[in-house]
């Protein structure tokens, strides 16, 4: 087992902003002052005093006295506070209840907060009642909080130091806390190490003094090689989200304890190489190119989420060889693209866009010339995948006749008809809409020759990928009148952010609707993607399941039960499985489940084993020559 016990070590843990996410007194103020006119002002004043006290800028005694006076709290408010605090236990403490019960004889809560609200919270989590040291309130006859027990050392300046001296713990003392008074225990020489706890708040003055900065309790347990709920603390893992993915994604990753960075735009190759060095989870949309060079410079990268449908921007083969699984959202924005295509084809068939532009310039051009209904017209779709299929259903409902051309044989829905050749589709259609994927070989599939084959006065739509169409040829076909109108949402080169200018030969041409790659940019689609992709990524990170991956052998795994899970990704050459199982046999390991899936390039083997294994065995598995990536789950 990868854990050890620190038999002679005592853990002194702070309560406010460490054991719980919040400061108890601040929250008590928010409760006791509810409904009062000056509530926000007083709560802010109390919070400010708490912060200054915690950062060591204000004498503790002074801060406490003044805050109690401002509180105007009653005994009854404490019940509400305790209920509130139950929901505010720091996530990493909630996750590691087992550590608390296992080490209950060595854990002490030392807080300058108040026993009345601390005790119920920490004892429910397994802390011993006689190991909780905190202040106590004084109450008036009517139950109002009038003050605190001034004889308690914790109410005095340097109180924690005095208390620890009294406790005189017979071993090493490790202090975990977020405040300056926690550091003072180390400064006094009474504690051997101070761990600045930053899961809830980071105080610069405190961090500077710490022996270690721990971003969570998992992190603390990991550093000290103690048993924990996460094999590797998520708070040590970085998630980099680009291209302004939905806020929900940020929330989902933060809730799991990851460090999350969200950037509004895409990054170019060099910028990404710089950023991705220590990133474990990368989230992108259609713009960020994840090239071989990027992947070669991302040693910690575990998984990539494409928060969109297309994955042509990612070198999927290299990602696979590097053991990086890739997931996307194959259906979340399908409908949004379809609705936009339908709207645009109607606008273009009627010349509405052009007429509207003229109106803005003061020109009144009422005429029916070149203005047609879509009903009864032939819609030719190139690419009959998820978008194509859905578009065909909506177009038929509008009375259109649907033709499609796809590289593979497809089951046509309703009355749609598959064309045997692209030429056939080009020659017959009144409206041509592209819905192919962005694979490299699709570059310029529509160029001069293809435009020449189209009917005169055709409407042309590209909402798929920019490089699929020869833009120069499209501009020429528009100028010559071969195409009566076009809608283009995607371009061979697109700005990385909204701050960059858009350049294209299509700018300024009449009856061309240009949109900034927004086919999938609806609130509905983005919210759905923001939920879907993180769940896929988290499922992979938390269970090893690759269901839905676009580049990895697909494995769906049962939840882990009283075992540890070893995830081994290796080059798929003969003999690796026998090496792995040889190591298990050598160490007499009890295997409770094993799953293997391979592709041409890699093998992905997942083994659930009983927890009593050795570090040497783990090292041997890592050291197998063909190992690409290895990780463990508890
Ligand atoms: N404008 C935007 O914001 C959005 C653009 N897209 C683009 O739309 C594409 C299609 O999306 P889905 O329909 O969900 O993908 P899909 O993978 O379900 O369908 C693509 C279809 O195109 C076919 N295909 C590929 N190359 C072809 C070719 N040269 N000729 C004929 N057929 C070909 C494939 O066989 C497949 O049936 C995505 O890959 C993405 O590039 C997707 C969402 C939003
Ligand atoms: O889903 C896709 O493939 C798209 O093209 C949409 O891309 P976006 O998320 O808008 O960058």
Automatic annotation (TrEMBL):
Pathway: Amino-acid biosynthesis; L-serine biosynthesis; L-serine from 3-phospho-D-glycerate: step 1/3. Its EC number is 1.1.1.399, 1.1.1.95. Transmembrane segments: none annotated. GO terms for molecular function: (S)-2-hydroxyglutarate dehydrogenase activity; NAD binding; phosphoglycerate dehydrogenase activity. Residues 565-634 form the ACT domain. PROSITE patterns: ACT, D_2_HYDROXYACID_DH_3. Keywords: NAD, Oxidoreductase. The keyword Oxidoreductase applies. The keyword Magnesium does not apply. It catalyses: (R)-2-hydroxyglutarate + NAD(+) = 2-oxoglutarate + NADH + H(+); (2R)-3-phosphoglycerate + NAD(+) = 3-phosphooxypyruvate + NADH + H(+). Pfam families: 2-Hacid_dh (PF00389), 2-Hacid_dh_C (PF02826), ACT_AHAS_ss (PF22629), HAD (PF12710). InterPro entries: ACT-like_dom_sf, ACT_dom, AHAS_small-like_ACT, D-iso_2-hydroxyacid_DH_PdxB, D-isomer_2_OHA_DH_cat_dom, D-isomer_DH_CS, D-isomer_DH_NAD-bd, HAD-like_sf. Belongs to the D-isomer specific 2-hydroxyacid dehydrogenase family. This is D-3-phosphoglycerate dehydrogenase. It comes from Siphonobacter aquaeclarae. The lineage of its organism: Bacteria, Pseudomonadati, Bacteroidota, Cytophagia, Cytophagales.
């Amino acid at each position: 087992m990868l854990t050890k016990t620190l038999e002679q070590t005592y853990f002194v843990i702070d309560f406010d902003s460490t054991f719980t996410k919040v400061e108890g007194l601040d929250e008590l103020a928010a409760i006791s002052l509810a409904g009062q006119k000056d509530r926000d002002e007083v709560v802010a004043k109390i919070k400010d005093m708490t912060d200054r006290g915690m950062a060591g800028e204000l004498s503790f005694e002074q801060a406490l006295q003044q805050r109690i006076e401002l509180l105007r709290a009653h005994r009854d408010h404490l019940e509400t506070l305790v209920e509130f605090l139950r929901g505010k236990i720091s996530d990493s403490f909630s996750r590691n209840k087992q550590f608390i019960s296992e080490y209950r004889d060595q854990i002490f809560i030392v807080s300058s907060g108040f026993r009345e609200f601390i005790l119920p919270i920490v004892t429910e989590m397994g802390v011993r009642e006689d190991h909780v040291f905190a202040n106590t309130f004084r109450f008036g006859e009517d139950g109002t909080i009038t003050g605190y027990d001034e004889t308690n050392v914790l109410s005095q300046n340097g109180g924690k130091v005095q208390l620890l001296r009294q406790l005189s713990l017979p071993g090493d003392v490790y202090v975990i806390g977020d405040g300056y008074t926690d550091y003072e225990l180390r400064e006094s020489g009474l504690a051997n190490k101070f761990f600045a706890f930053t899961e809830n708040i980071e105080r610069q003055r405190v961090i500077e003094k710490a022996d270690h900065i721990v971003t969570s309790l998992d992190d603390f347990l990991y550093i000290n090689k103690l048993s924990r709920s996460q094999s590797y603390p998520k708070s040590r893992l970085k998630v980099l989200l680009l291209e302004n993915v939905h806020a929900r994604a940020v929330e989902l990753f933060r809730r799991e304890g990851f460090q999350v960075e969200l950037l509004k735009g895409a990054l170019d190759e060099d910028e990404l190489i710089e950023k991705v060095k220590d990133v474990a989870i990368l989230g992108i949309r259609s713009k960020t190119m994840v090239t071989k060079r990027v992947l070669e410079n991302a040693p910690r990268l575990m998984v990539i989420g494409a928060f969109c449908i297309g994955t042509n921007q990612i070198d999927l083969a290299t990602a696979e060889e590097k053991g990086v699984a890739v997931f996307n959202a194959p259906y979340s924005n399908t409908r949004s693209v379809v609705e936009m295509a339908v709207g645009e084809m109607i606008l273009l068939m009627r010349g509405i866009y052009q007429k509207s532009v003229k109106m803005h310039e003061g020109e009144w051009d009422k005429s029916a010339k070149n203005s047609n209904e879509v009903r009864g017209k032939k819609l030719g779709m190139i690419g009959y995948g998820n978008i194509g299929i859905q578009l065909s259903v909506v177009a038929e409902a509008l009375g259109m006749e649907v033709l499609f051309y796809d590289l593979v044989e497809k089951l046509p829905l309703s009355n749609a008809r598959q064309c045997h050749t692209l030429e056939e589709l080009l020659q017959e259609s009144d409206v041509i809409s592209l819905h192919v994927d962005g694979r490299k070989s699709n570059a310029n599939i529509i160029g001069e020759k293809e435009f020449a084959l189209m009917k005169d006065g055709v409407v042309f739509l590209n909402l798929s990928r920019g490089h699929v169409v020869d833009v120069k040829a499209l501009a020429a076909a528009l100028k010559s009148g071969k195409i009566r109108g076009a809608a283009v949402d995607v371009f061979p080169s697109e700005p990385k952010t909204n701050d960059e200018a858009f350049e294209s030969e299509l700018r300024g041409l009449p009856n061309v609707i240009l949109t900034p790659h927004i086919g999938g940019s609806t609130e509905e689609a983005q919210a759905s993607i923001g939920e879907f992709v993180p769940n896929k990524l988290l499922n992979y990170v938390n269970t090893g399941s690759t269901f839905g991956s676009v580049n990895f052998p697909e494995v769906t795994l049962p939840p882990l039960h009283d075992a540890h899970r070893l995830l081994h990704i290796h080059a798929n050459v003969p003999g690796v499985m026998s090496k792995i199982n040889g190591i298990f046999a050598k160490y007499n390991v009890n295997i409770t489940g094993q799953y293997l899936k391979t592709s041409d390039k890699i093998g992905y083997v997942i083994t659930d084993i009983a927890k009593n294994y050795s570090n040497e065995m783990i090292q041997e598995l890592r050291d197998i020559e063909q190992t690409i990536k290895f990780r463990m789950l508890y």
